[in-house]
Amino acid sequence: MPTNIDKRRIVRIEATIAETPTVKTLVFKDRLSYSAKPGQFLMIWIPRIEEIPMSVMINSDEGYAAVTIRKFGIGSTALFERKKNDLIGLRGPYGNRFTLRKNYRKILIIGGGTGLVPLLRLASLASKSNVKSTIVMGARTKTEVFFEKITRRIIQGANSTLLVCTDDGSYGIKGTTVSTMGKLVRNDFFDCVYTCGPELMMKGVVDLSNKNSIPVQASLERYMKCGIGICGSCCLDSSLVCQDGTVFDGSQLSKMLDFGISYRDKDGQKINYA
Amino acid sequence: MVINDKNYNLSVELDKIHLRNPTMLASGILGISQSIFERLYNENIGAIVTKSISVNPMKGYPNPTIIPLGRGSYLNAVGLSNPGVHAFSKELCQNKNIPIIISLVGSSEKEFSEMVRVFDSLNILGYEINLSCPHVSKMGMEVGDDPEAVNKIVRTVRMNTNKPISVKVGVGSVDVVELARIAIDAGANIITAINTLRAMSIDVETMMPILSNRIGGLSGSAIKPIGIRCVYEISKKLQVPVIGCGGVSSWPDVIEYMVAGASAVQIGSVIGTSGPRIFKQITKDLRKYVEKKGLRNISEIIGIAHKY
C-alpha cells in the first residue's frame, strides 16, 4: 500500500541546534522527511498554536530529517521555542523539487538565510552525482552566517566551492549574493543556477540568470493554510506555490507579474514588497 | 466519431444563468485570485463560486485550518478568511468573460446590501448567499438557523439586485427543505445544497483537537450521501433549480446529484488530490456518458430519480 503523505505523524524532537540567536534547527526521526526531495516542504503542526510550511533540512543520520526556523511570527516563534523531547506533527513532504539534469557538470547555488535549507539537500545530491557546485551563501552580517560547517561537510571531496558574503563585509566577501553572482557568471560557465532566500534576492538572481541565458530554478515561499492546493492562499499569478512549486524555472518566473512584486496576506489581499 | 460540445451538449440552465457545463467551483476553494479563475476557466469549468466575501477583510483562524482525513474527506475551519468587499471588487474589476458567482457572508442585512451595491456593477453571473458555514459565530449557519434572519437577508439582497441569487443551505437545526422554502419565498432563485457538516478531529498522541478552532466542517466523499438526500428532497418538494454540493470527485457523482434533482454541481475537496485539472477530466467523462446514454442534452437527466 502506498504511504499516505497526508497522514499526520507525531514526532519527538531529538536534538536542537542553535544556528544563531534567532535561528534554530530541530532534528527528528521521520522516514518520509528523510527521503524528501530538495525543494519539498512539510506542514509542521505546533499543537494548539499553529501549522506552518517548512522546507525539509538535511540530517546526516539515516532516517532523520530536520527543520530550520527563523523566529519571526507566532508560528515560527513557537516552533523556535520547542525543546528536546517536545512533540510536533508533520504531514508531507509536499511540492515539486529542484531538478538536477544528468548532463549537468557544474552548478551555481545562491542562498540567503534559511533559504539555504532546500539548497543543502540539493548540494548533497549534486555531490553524490559528481556535479561540481559553487555555493554562494549570503547574510547581512557575520553573526547571521550559519550552515557554513555543514555545507563544507556536504561538499567535501566534491571539488566544490563555498563563498560566504555579507552585506557589511564583516565576514567573507563584502557584498550581496547577487553582486557576487555577477562576478562569477562573468568569468565562469554554469549549467544551471539554483536559488532560495528572500524573494527580492531571488528576483535579482533570476533576472541575472535570464539576462545571461543560464537556466535557473528558484524555490518560492508563500503563506499557506493547506499545503495541498485547496485554499489558494499561496497563489502567485495562476500558480500555486504548494502544488505547482515550490520550485519554478526562469521562463515561468519571468512571466509572473507577482514574482518579486507582491504576495498575499492571510486574508488574501495583495501586499507589495517594500 | 468526434466528441465535442455540439454533439454531446453539457450546457445547463440555472434560472437566468446559462452554463457551458454543470461543473462549478465550490465556495471556499482557491477563490481569491482572478488569475486562478482564468486558469480554472481554461480547465473547462462551468462556473466559479468565489470564497465567501464579507464587508471587512477577515484573516480567518490560525492554522491548522484544513486537515486531510484520507479517503477523499477533509475537515476545515478556515474561518471565512477573505480580502473584504473593496479589495475583492478590485480583484474582479477586469473580469470580462469568466463566469463568476460571488459568495456573500455577513451578520446583518446592512452588510449584505452594502456588498451587493459594490459588486453589482461587475461582470458577474450572480450571488450565492452563505447561510451555512458551520464554524464562525454570528455568520453562516448561525444566521441559517434563524428563519427570520434568513428571510430578511435574502429580501435585502433581492431588493438590491436583479441578478440571480442562490442561497447555500446546510444541515443545521432548521430542516433543510424548510430553510430552502423560506429563501425562495424571500426572493432567491436557486438553492445550493449542502455546506460542510460540523465535525471534529482529535490527535490521539497529544490528545489535542487538531483544528485551531477545535470544531470545523466536514467535506468530501464522507458527506456525499447526505448531499444527495438534501438535493433530492429540496428539488422534489420545491421545484426550484438546485446546485448539488458535497463529495463530488468524479463523473458518477455529478450524474448522481443530477438525477437526484441538481441542475449543476459544485466541486471542491477533490481538488486537494486531483488539482484543477479535475474539471477537464470530469467534463470529458460526462460527454462520454451523454453519448453512451444517447442524450441530446445532459439536462434531460435532472431529477429523473424522483419518478421512482
Mean pLDDT figure of chain A = 95
Helices of chain B, by number, come to 10
Q: N-to-C SSE series of chain B?
A: EEEHEEEHEHEHHEHEEEEEHEHEHH
- Report low-confidence residues of chain B grouped into runs of 5 or more: none
* Count of the domains of chain A: 2
Kindly give the count of domains of chain B: 1
Radius of gyration of chain B: 18 Å
Number of strands of chain B: 16
Radius of gyration of chain A: 18 Å
Q: Estimate the global geometry of chain A from the Cα principal axes.
A: globular
Strand percentage of chain A lies at 25-35%
Largest interface in this structure: A-B, 38 and 43 residues
The main sheet of chain A comes to:
7 strands, mixed
Largest sheet of chain B: 8 strands, parallel, barrel
CATH superfamily of chain B: Aldolase class I
Q: Any guess at the CATH architecture of chain B?
A: Alpha-Beta Barrel
Top CATH class of the largest domain in chain A: Alpha Beta
Between the first and last Cα atoms of chain B, what is the distance in angstroms?
A: 34 Å
Binned, the helix content of chain B reads 25-40%
Q: Can you give the helix content of chain A as a percent range? A: 10-25%
Descriptive report:
Chain A is 23% helix and 32% strand. The longest helix of chain A is centred in the middle third of the chain and has 13 residues, at 116-128. Chain A folds into two domains: 9-94, Translation factors (Elongation Factor Tu (Ef-tu), domain 3); 106-272, 3-Layer(aba) Sandwich (Rossmann fold), CATH 3.40.50.80. Chain A has seven helices and 18 strands. In chain A, helix 5 packs parallel to helix 6. The model of chain A has no long low-confidence stretch (mean pLDDT 95). By secondary structure, chain A is α/β, with parallel strands linked by helices. Chain A has helices spanning 31-34, 74-80, 116-128, 148-155, 177-187, 199-211, 250-255; strands spanning 9-12, 15-20, 23-29, 41-46, 50-55, 64-70, 87-94, 106-112, 132-139, 161-166, 173-174, 192-196, 216-219, 235-236, 239-240, 247-249, 262-264, 270-272. Chain B has a single domain, classed as Aldolase class I (TIM Barrel). In chain B, the strands form four sheets. Chain B has an eight-stranded parallel β-barrel, surrounded by eight helices. In chain B, strands 5-6-14-11 form a four-stranded antiparallel beta sheet, with no helix packed on it. Chain B has helices at residues 34-42, 84-92, 109-119, 141-144, 147-160, 176-185, 224-238, 251-260, 271-274, 278-292; strands at 12-14, 17-19, 23-25, 47-53, 66-70, 73-76, 100-104, 126-130, 165-169, 190-193, 197-200, 202-203, 208-209, 215-220, 242-245, 262-267. In chain B, helix 3 runs parallel beside helix 5. With 308 residues, chain B is an alpha/beta fold. The radius of gyration of chain B is 18 Å and the shape is globular. Classes of the chains: A alpha/beta (274), B alpha/beta (308). Chains A and B meet through strand 5 and strand 7 of A and helix 1, strand 5, strand 13 and helix 9 of B.
